[in-house]
């Protein structure tokens, strides 16, 4: 099942897919399921190595916004 | 000569007109950290909301100073606040598509992926939506 993002600005979907997969694997390895409830006093469930890119193309973390409307004619 | 000065110092101290003689290294008072108020900051980054296999996963390109304790999403302000243990709070941006707002209003818990030096760290955190 592919990942769906809710943001108006589209991030790098390969990065999102990778991070989501790792997060879910981490959660299930910790013993969580969709029915589990979080403990606000003990929220950390694990970590994983990651050497991929950032969520948005801009390394500073600001999303790049594509202009809407037709492309200008040259 | 040094001994003579020490003798004179002790003599003056006994007469009540001098400072106490030096008896070894002076111990410095321990540095007491200042008690600080919880910090609140705005970080100009977008929080990614992603759904997969029934899990809501939030992702940020940011390393928190503290351990995230709960997350609030305020749709009217288009912000997400991450309250950490100790009271610090970081606020980030989130502009959500209209068709997903109702789904987010029903969300009560999320997996949060954030930076931890060269790794990614995962937290399972209560989520509070506000329209």
Features:
heterodimer, A: 74 residues, alpha+beta, 1 helix, 11% strand, globular, B: 131 residues, mainly beta, eight-stranded mixed beta sheet, 2 helices, rod-shaped
In short:
The complex is a heterodimer of chains A (74) and B (131). Helix content of chain A is 23%, strand content 11%.
Identify the overall geometry of chain A.
globular
Sequence of secondary-structure elements of chain A = EHE
Q: What is the gyration radius of chain A calculated from CA atoms?
A: 17 Å
Mean pLDDT of chain A: 84
User: What share of residues of chain A is helical?
Assistant: 10-25%
Radius of gyration of chain B: 29 Å
Overall SS class of chain B: mainly beta
Largest beta-sheet characterization of chain A = none
Report the portion of residues of chain A in β strands: 5-15%
Compute the number of helices of chain A. Answer: 1
Description:
The complex is a heterodimer of chains A (74) and B (131). By secondary structure, chain A is an alpha+beta fold. Chain A has 1 helix and 2 strands, in the order E-H-E. Chain B has 131 residues and is mostly beta strands. Helices cover 14% and strands 42% of the residues of chain B. Chain B contains 2 helices and 8 strands. Chain B has helices spanning 2-14, 101-105, and strands at residues 40-46, 48-52, 55-59, 68-74, 79-84, 89-93, 109-116, 119-130. At the A-B interface, strand 1, helix 1 and strand 2 of A face strand 1, strand 2, strand 3, strand 4 and strand 7 of B.
